[in-house]
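Deliverable D2.4 — example input (structure tokens):
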């Protein structure tokens, strides 16, 4: 029992560990999916803002051309576009604005700030030229020339490169998330498999063994291993009902070990228990596979013999009596058995009537000197 409790304790701990691991993995999946959603939203926003930078650079150049042609509202629109481009530039670099949560990655930062002609410096120079052109003055012509040149050849390729970089980073993030998802899923499945093998399967086996043990306790005699009285009576009643319905014979035998009390008094109860076990072993060897013998009391036993008529029942009873008398265990005192026999009758209303006649026949055998077989038929 202590070993079983120890096993159950270890299995309970393993089960709790498994549940905890499953909870952790489930939480990891939740946060992973949440991270994927946030990451994708942020990546989409970054790509959108970077694409707007490209569009705004061309819009500013067109508005500068309109201003050069003398359109009155072009100046304000150009300044608004420049302001939007500057704000977008700051959001891309630092994050925290326009729905962008993160700052530049190392690769993007290198594009914007490293090298002889970094993108951020080009954008700032472009916006500076826009401000000078909008202010007018002596430098307006040079500023307009710079806006036109940069918009056509210098700024647009780098803005395109920025968009492509952000798209590639978004794809890399998705690929990483997919790999992480596969790892978590594989770990989750492995955990379930390990739980099935090392927890649930042993648990089911233990429950099945306990159920079998409980069934044995409910149906077997603990000392001899034979069916107990309750199980015997249930089975005997079913056999009686079948015999009554089909008209086939059914024999009942009631046995009692002779002078068993003297064995207990003289040799002790341990020897008496050994005698009972010896009797059960011998009887089981002698009887047919379909015959049912049960320990119904201290030294009392009962048998049901389906499809057995009078002569057959007497033959079995005598064979059993002789086997007990002629197969002594040298380590145990010699024993004999008295047997009462009865045969089912159409007038019998229950199996109890059949057993009562066998019990009365047993008392006749004991009264006649024991170690013998007696038969009583229905009257």
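Example output (designed residues):
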């Amino acid at each position: 029992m202590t070993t079983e409790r120890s096993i159950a304790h270890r299995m309970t701990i393993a089960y709790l560990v498994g549940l905890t691991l499953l909870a952790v993995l489930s939480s990891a999946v939740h946060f992973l999916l949440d991270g994927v959603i946030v990451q994708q939203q942020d990546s989409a926003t970054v790509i959108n803002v970077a694409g707007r930078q490209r569009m705004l650079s061309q819009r500013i150049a067109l508005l500068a051309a309109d201003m050069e042609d003398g359109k009155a509202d072009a100046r304000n629109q150009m300044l608004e576009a420049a302001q939007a481009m500057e704000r977008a530039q700051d959001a891309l670099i630092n994050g925290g604005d326009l729905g962008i949560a993160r700052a530049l990655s190392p690769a993007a930062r290198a594009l914007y700030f490293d090298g002889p002609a970094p993108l951020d410096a080009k954008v700032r120079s472009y916006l500076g030229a826009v401000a000078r052109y909008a202010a007018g003055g002596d430098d307006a012509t040079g500023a307009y020339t710079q806006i036109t040149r940069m918009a056509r050849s210098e700024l647009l390729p780098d803005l395109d490169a920025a968009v492509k970089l952000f798209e590639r980073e978004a794809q890399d993030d998705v690929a990483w998330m997919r790999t992480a998802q596969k790892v978590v899923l594989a770990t989750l499945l492995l955990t379930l498999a390990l739980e099935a093998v090392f927890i649930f399967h042993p648990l089911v086996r233990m429950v099945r063994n306990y159920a079998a043990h409980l069934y044995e306790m409910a149906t077997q005699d603990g000392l001899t291993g034979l069916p107990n009285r309750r199980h015997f009576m249930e089975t005997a009643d079913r056999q009686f009902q079948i015999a009554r319905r089909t008209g086939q014979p059914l024999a009942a035998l009631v046995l009692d070990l002779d002078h068993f009390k003297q064995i207990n008094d003289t040799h002790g109860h341990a020897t008496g228990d050994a005698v009972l076990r010896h009797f059960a072993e011998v009887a089981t060897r002698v009887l047919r596979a379909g015959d049912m013998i049960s320990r119904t009391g201290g030294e009392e036993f009962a048998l049901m013999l389906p499809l057995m008529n009078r002569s057959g029942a007497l033959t079995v009873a005598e064979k059993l009596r002789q086997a007990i008398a002629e197969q002594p265990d040298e380590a145990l005192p010699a024993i004999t058995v008295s047997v009462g026999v009865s045969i089912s009758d159409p007038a019998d209303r229950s199996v109890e009537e059949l057993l009562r006649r066998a019990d009365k026949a047993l008392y006749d055998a004991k009264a006649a000197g024991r170690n013998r077989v007696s038969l009583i038929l229905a009257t």
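The longest helix spans residues 140-219.
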